[in-house]
């Protein structure tokens, strides 16, 4: 079964991605949580354009991505889990938890380190929040994230199946928790004990920096509670809160060229942005 999954990795991941993307789009259309401030035609071309650029860049720069690297690591018995000869099921669970914690720690670092924040803020300058925001990352951030992921997969000796499952889960939960979907507060309270929900993650996209620097989890919600970065609700309420960053509220937040230039722009004293 694991050999079949790995052999059909690309098809499985693409199919799963499209199913979740279309499901979230349909849910947003039927039951939106918030009214969007901009028409989708103003935002979606750049958001989808970024994921296309990111995919091409990764394929050009990396002969092996995460699952392929995990397979090489397993074949050569590299990494901690392989050295310790951990039982397969325990190795899979351990790898899923460690990889998710790595994403959390990386996310915190991208907020706290100025140079990394320049890369990551492309994600945060979206003026609305919906499923396409989950795709909105600068290519330079994607490359650096892949390097970190490959290093952790190799050092840990993560089983290839665990890496494939993690990639699929992270992709799906990111689209879920960025989605503009509405469901009952009671269900949200239950779900956020096990997974990052849209209401929990929306706080992270607040225009208020103290809220932007909270709720860093993409998949599991436990790390934020454990490390003291959890914030339950936005101060302005989910309907009244403003999404994005104060310095980027014009074409630079909505057009493809503006998004690609963002790491090379800095905020000025008037709240605008200028080239460095």
UniProtKB/TrEMBL annotation:
Compartments it resides in: Membrane
Swiss-Prot/TrEMBL keywords: Membrane, Transmembrane, Transmembrane helix
GO cellular component term of the entry, any: membrane
Transmembrane segments: 12-29, 50-74, 86-105, 146-170
Superkingdom of source: Bacteria
Domain Fatty acid hydroxylase: 93-229
GO BP terms: lipid biosynthetic process
Molecular-function annotations in GO: iron ion binding; oxidoreductase activity
Key word Repeat present: no
InterPro entries, A to Z: Fatty_acid_hydroxylase, Sterol_Desaturase_Related
UniProt cross-references to PANTHER family, sorted A to Z: STEROL DESATURASE (PTHR11863)
Name the record gives this protein: Sterol desaturase
